[in-house]
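Model: Ready when you are.
Researcher: Fold this.
Model:
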Amino acid sequence: MVYAGDRKMTKPILKTETALNVFSDIDRYIGRRIGDIRRRRKITAAQLAEHLGITAERLKQYETGARAVSARLLAKIMEFFRVPAAYFLDGAAELALCEA
């Protein structure tokens, strides 16, 4: 385990690769769909991030599945691209069944 500072703390800080593993295939799927539509529409990560009020680094984390996208943020993304929720969620049901 990796600990903050020189002394051991009661709560360890997880290494990045370990933290990435806790996110589901659904998070990665939705993130991939966000990145796909952004690139197809020729929108830079910086442009979309600015519109959403987040950093480009945070957007990259969503697109790679390293972070789960909140429903509120997903709604902003749907509004920006003018696509229905189905664009991001179609195909996710099969992944949910696999995880259960």
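Researcher: Now this one.
Model:
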Amino acid sequence: MDHYLLVSAVRLKFKQKKVEKTVRPLAVENLEDACFAGKFHLELTNHFEVLQHSDDIEQEWDQLKKCVSETAEEVVGRGRGLRREQWIGKETWQLIDE
């Protein structure tokens, strides 16, 4: 007889997937409100006045990008809810909070 029955036990250890924390998108729909838009424009103008001009274009671009993103974060804020919950409006979120 040239065939033998084999039985074995196999243990596998799977590598754990590293979950990166996702950054919620900015709530740009707030800019439709004139109050938010005016405040954002004012803050952005104030930040632009403080910027220092340099000869290095990369450094200037980084300063500009940082200025706009920080201002947007402060004034506009981050969107609420997950991506699949973006259809929920502001009024509905207010009712949920109550």
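Researcher: Key takeaway?
Model: The radius of gyration is 26 Å.
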